[in-house]
Amino acid sequence: MVRDPGRRLSGLLTWLTTPLPPPPERLRRGPLRPGAFPSPLRSARLSANLGAALGVMMLTCLITGVLSHLIQHPPAWFTWPSRPIGLYRFTQGLHVATGLATVPLLGAKLWSVYPRLFAWPPARSIAHAAERLSVALLVAAALSQTVSGLLNIAHWYTPMPFFFTTGHYRVAWLLTGAVLIHLGVKLPLIRATWRRPAPPDGRRQVLAAAGAAAALITVSTLGQTVRPLAGISLLAPRRPGSGPQRLPVNRTAAAAGVRDLALDPGYRLTISGPGGGVSLTLAELQALPQHTAVLPIACVEGWSSTGTWTGVRLRDLITLAGDVPAAGEAVVESLQADGRYRTSVLAGPHLTDGLTLLALRLAGEPLALDHGYPARLIAPNRPGVLQTKWVTRITVREAR
Ligand SMILES: Nc1nc2c(c(=O)[nH]1)N[C@H]1C(S)=C(S)[C@@H](COP(=O)(O)O)O[C@H]1N2
Ligand SMILES: [Mo]
Questions:
Q1: Which among 139, 157, 158 has a CA at the least distance from the CA of 301?
Q2: Is residue 11 one of the residues assigned to a domain?
Q3: Is 1's pLDDT higher than 60?
């Protein structure tokens, strides 16, 4: 016989919400005593308002972050256009800017609610205990995202126990789930709070201070991608105009271990495809029709910088190795022996776009060694990690 599921559910709910035995009163000391947190600046309204501001930042950060993930690991259903050329520069700039703006907002939010850590009794029921655990998860996930994002921008991977992008991506979904649970639980309280008229004395100091801190952080880091703000870019780890040929360097030739190979006069670019293959010297590449494109490097870390690139169109190059399959893609490989960014795949609109170049020159000079000499990929509207430097092999194949 099947038991009535409705009765089962109500039994479960009763069990979850049955009051737990109260803890002994003598434990009510220090922060657990009544009136331990007297600040009049804290209120349900402040917590709800900070939550709303955080929610907007986090949602923007999530959408732009998932987009960046899809572009770097495209599933079959996903295509990213090659125009407008600066779209990724914008979405990823927004990802990092909103992520940075959460730092003061999250700090203020934690300050506004941390007395609840010492709520008495610690758990009123099993359901209440579970809700508190979900808040613990929420706080841990939010801090983990902020800290790992900051460490990544600072290129400081040592303290991270996981590979950054994988960890950052997975915890983003954990955080999303925890935020949704939290919103579901708090919705009645939030609505009741916002329905009440705001207090006339307008205790807005904390909200205003957190907002001002967020604005200050934004203004002093946005110069890493908005050139006119570069002069006041006090907190940004990268500036657009710095580095050889006025472009920042992410990984140097020495760090990638390619110095000798890149400078070797025996350098060849090998192009192969279903129809055959060719091998070209640098002089032969230079003798092919040259094109110039003004395109940004837009790093996932949020910095970006425009360069004037000159080289051979990729679509011209690959036809040297025979006809390109209709649904073709090209695997671009560098001289680098290992490392995550030694290869990238060019597919769809980026493969055929006339602005996609195998660049030989930057800012009117041969590429600096650190920018990918003798040849590097540069394509419109693409994350920096996919703009492979020190290219030595291009393989055309049927798209997977
Ligand atoms: N072979 C190779 N290419 C690479 C990388 C790398 O580590 N190895 N780093 C990428 C990253 S993360 C970025 S942001 C750009 C930066 O290009 P730049 O150093 O010329 O500014 O190069 C990309 N190309
Ligand atoms: Mo990058």
A1: 157
A2: no
A3: no
First and final C-alpha spacing in the chain: 52
Token pair 């649904």 in the structure block, residue: 327
Dist. CA 88–CA 300, nearest whole Å: 9
212 in the same domain as 124: yes
pLDDT single digits (tens) 90-118: 999 999 999 999 999 999 999 999 999 99
Query: What tens digit of pLDDT does each residue of 331-349 get?
Result: 999 999 999 899 999 999 9
Pocket of ligand 1 (CB under 6 A): 247-251, 256, 297, 299, 334, 336, 339, 341-342, 371-372, 384-385, 387-390
User: Which atom of ligand 1 lies closest to the CA of 383?
Assistant: 14
4-13, 50-59, 133-142: least confident range: 4-13
Residue 49 lies in a domain: yes
User: Both 91 and 162 in a single domain?
Assistant: yes
What are the backbone dihedrals phi and psi of residue 233, each rounded to the nearest 5 degrees, phi first? -85, 65
Residues 202, 268: one domain?
no
Would the pTM of this model clear 0.90, i.e. be above it?
yes
Residues 268 and 347 in one domain: yes
